[in-house]
Batch of 2 targets.
Target 1
Amino acid sequence: MQFPAGIPERALLIHRLMMNPPETVYTDSHRVYCDGATDIRAGAALGHPRVWMEIDEKGYVECGYCDRRFVLKGGPADQQAA
Ligand SMILES: [Zn+2]
């Protein structure tokens, strides 16, 4: 069964954004993509069109659709770096 196009997905996306703060994803690659899907929650069918982004000299990039932040491991924005 599929959702009808439009409102239900949008309502669910808004719900998801309200219920969950933006994620931080650590990556080894300067070039990342985001489609809003997640491996963790059951929301993999939601999300947004896939977009590719380049991590710049700040060491991170944020998705303009869902605010997920991609942090380069070991880069300037990696708070976990030793
Ligand atoms: Zn995204």
Target 2
Amino acid sequence: MPDAELVLRSTRVITPGGMRAASVAVAGGTITAVLPYDAGPPAGARLEDLGDDVLLPGLVDTHVHVNDPGRTEWEGFSTATRAAAAGGITTLIDMPLNSLPPTTTVGHLRTKKQVAARRAHIDVGFWGGALPDNLADLRPLHDAGVFGFKAFLSPSGVDEFPHLGREHLARSMAEIAGFGGLLVVHAEDPHRLAAAPQRGGPKYADFLASRPHDAEATAVAHLVEQAERLHARVHVLHLSSGEALPLIAVAKARGVPVTVETCPHYLTLKAEEVPDGASEFKCCPPIREAANQDLLWQALADGTIDCVVTDHSPSTADLKTDDFATAWGGVSGLQLSLPAVWTEARTRGHDLVDVVRWMSAHTARLVGLDARKGAIEAGRDADFAVFAPDDTFTVDPAALQHRNRVTAYAGRTLHGVVRSTWLRGERILADGEFAEPRGRLLGRTDGPAPPPERPTRERQT
Ligand SMILES: [Zn+2]
């Protein structure tokens, strides 16, 4: 019998081999075994019977802007990680902007860690930033445990995080490839953006025209070309345009080390439905047409797109003005990403195994956390979401946990309710109640989970 303090039993457990009835044994915060459904719990273990609710691995969201410290009125570690836990997310990787300072030196990383420690309800790791002038900081940041480096090819929206021109991109890419790191890129071409009509104002169609498809396709083409030339691992952030997909598919087939993510809002919201002036829908690249959305789903199905992440990027409500040109760009999606994606996925013939692959297994692998996160199997952290996939709810902004309750999903009816969320074998959220923060700060160099300790006492229930 494996060590177990706790056994979670469900008729529907999502394992790497698919969904099946199983009993999952947990000790010392780690999964020790996935047993047959009717295996009796080992002596002394507490049994948690989940009935027909689905037990899935906690989601790993590798694209979140927590903005703390410096813009904590926009978001913070406490509120962001509560929203994440409420959405079934148990690990997030924080983007290097829009906090002050941005995570572009080891000293800044230390500051971020100090702020995140003791406030995080889930596990938190950090991306570093690649700027035109911090080439010498990249290796030290890598050694200090960031999971990779974010760069922009066009203006980022904040002055303290300038974008990389082509020369700086090549230099940063070569440096990062030199130590085996990962470069993650906001890929919109600044010249194509500048050439597009910039009308401003409240009309969504004008905003959409200002961020055309070919800005993404051009930037992705350049990125892939450079990655191939420099043998560099690159990851395309928040792809919204289907126009870039064929060249990504070709590059992948040729063995170029490129991966791609998209976001719940690109997969579930449509340009045709965005009301004029409704800048809660504004993000860059933009939410595009329904026909384009079909291409993104096809690319998820065939593996051209690897993963789905939130790009949760909030601001205070006053910055979400009705002028699309000047309103803050970012959709707040942490708490709703799983039900939003699941609602659309099920109508397109996908199952929860697919959703877990895109939102947990592949994101864990992207950042090298796949020895401990992203699957329900022996040896991984006991991070779970308990999910009722057939229940529905209507999004009420008042029920959201992120700091500014601005949402593009208000009033939508979604499928799938997160009943509880578990981090290393402890329930951190149940029935809307949060436990004390017990998230850990993760580093790229932490390695796999240590072997579980033998239980020495009865666990409190
Ligand atoms: Zn982002």
